[in-house]
Design a protein that fits this description.
This protein is of the alpha+beta class and 298 residues long. It has two domains: 122 residues, no CATH class; 162 residues, Aminopeptidase (3-Layer(aba) Sandwich), CATH 3.40.630. The protein contains nine helices and eleven strands. Helix 7 links the parallel strand 9 and strand 10. Helix 2 crosses helix 9, helix 4 crosses helix 7 and helix 5 packs across helix 6. The longest helix is centred in the first third of the chain and has 23 residues.
Length: 298
Amino acid sequence: MLFATTSLAARVERAECAMAVAFGELAKMRRADALTAPVGGATAVYGGPGEPFNKLAGLGFAPLDEDVLADVEREFDRRDAPLQVEFAALADPDVATRLARRGYHLVNFEHVLGLELTKAIVDRAAVECDTHAANGVRVGRASKTDGASWLNAVATGFAHPDVFDGPPSHESVARDALERVFDDFARIPGLVCYLAHRDGALAGGASLRIIDGLAQLCGAATLPDHRRRGVQSALLRARLVDAAREGCELAIVTTQPASKSQENVQRAGFTLLYARAIMVRQPRAEATRAGTGQSPDP
């Protein structure tokens, strides 16, 4: 049975942090105000207004210097941006207490799930890939010429979130912003994009990134007209098989609690490892005005 320890959680959170940092480095190529700032063994990332990767991931697994955190908070204040911390349940709880004292408020949770890529599991996934293909759902790696199709699939899928009996997301991103984010996302080093077709029609997309022996399964979306037809399942199995071929020992996925995505991966054998608390500090108006040269209110 897969069991989450603090060491495993730290490894997963480092990978999550590395993904955000890669996004931040890409954002620096187009924005002068983009930021990647180390703090407490983690990194805070700012890529532009409202970007989903604007966050501090991986905190709580190393000592936290609050003076360094205060410097990062001021940088976010200058950008009039909230600072979101994704805090793993297996991290040091004292850090969460200190965040609360600094004005971070709990807004939601995420679930982190994992699956050991044993030979039996991978062999079964390969058979299921063949079954999906026989039923008309085929998955393959996106080529360089498939960029527009992949972008359309994932942006459209995420722009039309599924309905499920669980807490709603704390984020809402406009379609044009989704396209910009996923365009950057596809450029992250090491990221592999996948397309799914159902009976020859574009049905969905997903991505895979391998780091430190972990397979990060991310960016999966199905077009609304093709949902409940095995597309998500096919995208999942194809990436598991590829990850195992690349030597990965563990696959990781992050979902909204009680979402269809969580239901799908648990049906495939994934185990809930831990939750992340999403804590947000809103920008301070005085610091924001100071950063723009405006005077604070009397």
